Amino acid sequence: MSASSRNDIGAYRKYLSVLAQVLREVLATTPEQYAPTYDALLKVVCFDMCLALDTYFASGRMELLGLKNYSEQVISSMPTGVMVIDADGRVRTVNAAIGAMQGLPPDCAVAGQPYERCVADAALRGRIELAMAQSDYRGELVAELDVAATRRYLRCSVARTWLDGEKLLLLIMEDITAPMQAKAALHDSEERFRIAFSQAAVGLAQLEPEGSWLRANQKFQDIVGYTEEELRGMTFRDITPGREWLDDEIAQRRLLAGEVASYTREKRYLRKDGQLIWVNVSVARMQASSGELSLIVVIEDIARRKQSEHELRHLASHDPLTGLANRSLMLDRLRQALAAAQRGGRQVSVLFIDLDRFKHINDSLGHDAGDQVIIEVGRRLAAFVREGDTVARLGGDEFVVLLTEIEQADALAALACKLLATLTKPMTILGHEVSPIGSIGISIYPKDSADGPALLKNADAAMYRAKQLGRGNFQFFAEELNARTLDGLRLEGGLWHALERDEFTLVYQPQFDMRSGAIVGVESLLRWQPTGAPPVPPDSFLSIAEQTGLIVQTGAWVLRMACAQQVAWRNAGLPCGRVAVNLSARQFRQPDLAQMVVRTLKETGCAPDGLALEISETAIMADPQAAAATLQQLGGMGVHLVIDDFGAGYSSLSHLNRLPVHVLKIDRSFIRDMCSDGHAAGVARAAIALGHSMNLAVAVAGVETTEQQALLREQGCDQMQGFLLSRPLPADPLAAMMLAQQ
After folding, report:
1. Cβ within 8 Å of residue 596, ≥6 positions away
2. How far apart are CA 612 and CA 16, in angstroms?
3. What is the dihedral of CA 119, 120, 122, 128, to 10 degrees?
4. What's the rounded Cα separation, in Å, for the pair 217 and 729?
5. Can you tell me the distance from the alpha carbon of 608 to that of 610, in angstroms, rounded to the nearest whole number?
6. Which tens digit of pLDDT belongs to each residue from 694-741?
7. Hey, which bits of 365-501 come out as E strands?
8. pTM of this structure
9. What's the Cα-to-Cα distance from 405 to each of 142, 182, 378, 384, 443, rounded to whole Å?
């Protein structure tokens, strides 16, 4: 009974109690009427009370029905699945959500049927069966179902409870697919991050704002040499050398203050083993959801790149073979030395060194041996100079020594002598003993120039002067030497155009038989008459042509013109004999020399026996085996072969005896001095005797006096030429001489 009903009955009781007292007073005179009157009144009141109670009960039933409908509507519209199962295993109450979650058709989620039709998961059915067997069961599980090709996770709560006076089973089902998927995605993301962090090819670490290490991946540990456990007890300052960490602190403060999003810099770390390593560091700020700040550090080991950069810088400024400074670095140091010398009033000297006969070493022993010689020379020069001086290799066999502080020229002369002595000490190269000889040119600041490149050029000019004076010596720069060098450059420039401008001509010096005095041949001699300029002496331009390689083109022109002239004289019926052409050393080394001679003879119509080729003894002995092969080719075609300047070189008699030559032509230096120098006369006599013993004719050039002529005739010389008999003549005057002799 409700509180309202109890209050109404209490009011009736009070009403009857008061009314009983009033009736007693009204019917005091007729007490016999009191009982029937109160009974009638009680009947009315009781009837009224029954009507009121019926009204209350009807209202309660309506309210309960409304509450039941409301509850059913609430349960039906709940996103959470609800199902009530009675003791017989039938569904008492179920909402639509419980079927939709499991992907069941709508007619399955209906009250009155067995609960098995409303439960798709076997594990959940087993749990319900277990709960039905216990009066106070309460449990939970997560069911996993495939619904419409989608994995769905359902959290199910199963509990026994009293309801409407009986023990029922309540099943609450909640779809937790979204949070489970989010959790799985988060787990996958964390796993990927863990793997990426630990297996990254770069070093990764997390740093607290004050600089303590929180974590580090394996690559980071490998780079710095510390384990993650060791790093946790350290700060970034502990692996930063010196006070370089100050720059890091400044950058980190700006990062934590939000002034920059990240920063990157190259720095050094101090490994656990004490080794300094270069790394590229990138640092960014990371803020957790809790608001806590930390720093993410990415480091890349750039030691190899730094080493490569160092090697590239070294290669850019150093010679790759010797490791010495190259021209660029030497000029830079020369500029610095001149600036310092100008401030301090000091002198600076440049020594230009060129190895003599280095090409002979290369050609005879090979380029590997030549490289070893260059390396050893560079080592000797570097060991010879003082700290602060510079040794450079400019290329080939050219070296420069820069002396930053010198006192006087005498000291430089003594130094140059010692340097030459150091170079000439024997060295063993690939089993061969080699003693390189050098020529040194010296220039001095400020006497010779105040400009670095000019000082180098002047020292180079002085070095060439040393070569001209016999090699293996040193020379100081002089202004006239510089002038001669400039003249040489002008000559070289003119030589390149002499052929195309038709500035070359030939003159011919007759060669006479010593006994009969008849002309037996002529020697072709090259002359240069530049347009609009005086003639250039052969001694001035032939050496330049040899050095620049122009002698090959020029020599081919001389051969063609000489052969054509011999044919012209022969066709004119003149007794010219053979026409002789000098082959330079560079021409003689040309691989196509024999083919060029054959081609020239064919084009000009000159007979092979009408041509004589004169090759110097020095050119032949530079490579005797190759020379022998070339001479065999030339001799085989019928060309007359002459060894020129015999006695000036160092011929091996065994080699000489195997060469297919016809004439030995004695070096004119012996002829010049033979009347006043017994040694020269003895050499000439021996050379004549040697030639005759080998069945060779012996010729001489440079006969200028009757005394020389008489002595040579006495010694049995076969042929001679020289100013005594005839100067070199153009073709027409010489033709007139031949005609007169005829």
Report:
1. 556, 559, 590
2. 175
3. -10
4. 94
5. 5
6. 889 999 999 999 999 999 998 899 999 999 999 999 999 999 999 988
7. 390-395, 398-406, 427-429, 432-434, 437-445, 474-476
8. 0.47
9. 92, 79, 21, 15, 13
